[in-house]
Design a protein that fits this description.
Strand content: 15-25%
Structural class: alpha+beta
Oligomer: single chain
Largest sheet: 4 strands, antiparallel
Shape: globular
Number of domains: 1
Length: 304
């Protein structure tokens, strides 16, 4: 082995070792929601331990402002002058992903590299295509591409992963209210904590491919905006995933009423651990649960 080659190997090895040390030390001071969940996973062994882990993920999200800012700027740089960057505002919660994590926790999709919540490009393209196909637009396959058997066509417009403009991760709750005991259906509330984005503003980027034009992007933009008016993600019928444009664009009725209740809470109801001071949250899903309970209770009564 020549002296020069040996020296080159030593130089390369030392150069590789130095960044590893600095990255390791910096990771001790930096944490994103995904890292917070991974680090806490071994300590979870009962249902009572799950909520504090989710709270840690939310706290980690609050320290990711620099990541959000960088990714938002990257989206704007990538779309350039021919693409379009759209800020989409959600008036309550939005949950995309629906992954079942450790201990059966329902987790939103978290970016595998940056560890923050986001909406994958595939999800945006899926809801856009679904809306356009439902309305029988003849340009769907031309602009969004297609693959059927041996036939394929490349898209003229592509979507970028969409990221929030800032920290928005929040501890949420899912509360199944009915249990199936053989054939009879019985009432049995069983709330469990989860994560979702709350009142988020999402930056969506769409841009033409080498085959597309800015005019093509404008057409796809109109499809996307109409699709988002209906909603995106899971639990749409319970008020999730609704944009601020939803009520203005969809037929609806408004009613004024007084709600007499001991309190409506989310993941943090009154308990001994918080001195019986829960966190109030007006939840459309709770109103839906009330209606479902009474309709189902009446149906069971009539059946008997």
């Amino acid at each position: 082995m020549s002296q020069k080659y040996s020296n080159d190997r030593q130089t390369a090895a030392s150069a590789f070792a130095r960044p590893q040390k600095s990255i390791s030390s910096s990771n001790q001071n930096m944490c994103n929601p995904l890292q917070a969940l991974i680090r806490s996973e071994p300590s979870i062994h009962s249902e009572s331990d799950r909520k504090p882990v989710l709270v840690k993920a939310v706290e980690a999200d609050k320290g990711c402002d620099r990541i959000y800012k960088t990714l938002n700027q990257r989206i704007r740089d990538l779309v350039g002058s021919n693409g379009i960057a759209i800020e989409v505002e959600f008036d309550w919660r939005v949950r995309v992903g629906g992954n079942r994590g450790f201990c059966d926790l329902l987790l939103p999709v978290l970016h595998p590299v940056f560890g923050i919540p986001y909406i994958p490009a595939s999800t945006l393209k899926g809801v856009t295509r679904a809306w356009a196909e439902k309305h029988a637009d003849p340009k769907v396959r031309e602009l969004l591409g297609m693959l059927e058997g041996n036939q394929a066509k490349a898209a003229k417009v592509e979507f970028l992963d969409a990221f929030p403009t800032g920290a928005c991760l929040s501890v949420d709750v899912a509360n199944p209210q009915w249990k199936w005991d053989a054939n009879p259906v019985r009432y049995g509330s069983s709330p469990f904590p989860s994560l979702s984005m709350e009142t988020a503003t999402i930056l969506v980027g769409i841009m033409p491919t080498e085959r597309g034009t800015k005019a093509d992007t404008e057409i796809v933009r109109s499809w996307l905006e109409n699709a988002l008016k209906i909603g995106i993600g899971s639990r749409i019928s319970s008020g999730y995933g609704r944009t601020t444009q939803y009520l203005a664009s969809m037929p609806h009725s408004q009613y004024k009423f007084e709600l007499w209740t001991e309190g409506m809470y989310g993941y943090n109801p009154p308990a001994k651990g918080n001195d019986y001071r829960g966190t109030h949250e007006f939840r459309p899903s709770a109103l839906r649960g009330i209606l479902r309970y009474w309709f189902r209770a009446m149906a069971i009564l009539l059946r008997q």
